[in-house]
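note to self: the first set is below, dont mix up w the second
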Amino acid sequence: MDDGMILTHIIGWGLGLLLFFIALVLYSEKKKKQATIPHMILRLDYLLILYTGFVLLWRYFDEDGSSFTVQAIIKGIAGLIVIVCMEMILVKLKKEKSAKAWWIIFFIALVITLLLGFGILPMGFLP
């Protein structure tokens, strides 16, 4: 497998989470105008995450007889849910509404994504 694509995907997620928390803090401090910049950059980062994630998912389909295809699909769906939750949390904060349910879904989907991505799937880093 191409380690460059995996690394790009991980860097994209790392940058995405960093931008998410920066925008989160700024929205929480009622600095909507300043929060717009990291929020917009985060939206661009979603494209990088989606592209690299799709390429990595496609590699599981290309492997003949891969026993990890179902887990890769579940990880992809959980990753999409994480992105949706990140966006919904920021939009709710911007509108000063409660995002409690989105936080719960975010946490569950993030744990699933990390466990599958780093622990179970063969392109992960953990044994």
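second set (the one i keep forgetting abt)
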Amino acid sequence: MTPVSDTVEQAFITPRHLAGGGDPGWITVPLHRASGWSYGHDPLMPRVLLTSPDQLTQLRLDPAPDEPDWWTIRHARSADHPGWAATFQNRTPVEIIAAFTDALTDPSGPPTTAPDPFAPLRGAGWVTPHHLGGLASPDGVARVEQLGTPGSDLWHIETGVFQDPTIWRAVFTGTTPPHLITAVTQSLADQTPITRDPQRVPGWSRNRMTVHLHHVPAPDIAFALERRVSALAARHRPATAAPPVPPSPSPRRTR
């Protein structure tokens, strides 16, 4: 058994859409170190700018006190795809945003058949709210909608309860590749708890979340980001070819 002195207390929070923002490095560090995105931000400004190796996509993290849309990801128009944009507000759990960026940087590319972003939610028991569109989480706190008409539509995710203001919102232009939106809805549908420092458990909607405190090995927390970077970097390494099989020796002729 691991001694208590070698453990760290962590809060395990469900549902994950109420876990709070978390550490932005969970997103920015792997983009730079595992996927080769370059940074060009001013070190004297409290913002981060990361650009993809092909110069088509930029992530901007701009923690402005009066603006909730801290995260913006824009992809320029290319020969085979129109431009698109995605925004996430500051209280969006970084694990949910990371699902988007991990899918975006996956070297295997998008699937041959466009997925349905609603499918993971239906499988997790999300339902259509009464007199409303889209799908709502079983606790009624989160809702995913597709608004507008094809070509000018928006995908919209919002969490909040009637008595409280919006907790966080994410918006995707209709030209955003469906597999990226589906990566987000898969993360929303995931029932695995999100871990946070017990001192940073959000204060909003506490009656809507379940929090369990557990002691976990300190190295699991200290090296979690390094393990994540290594796993994502491995996706970009070519598969190691099997060593060639040496030819069988020619049979010796006997008299």
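remember for set 2: The longest strand covers residues 7-14.
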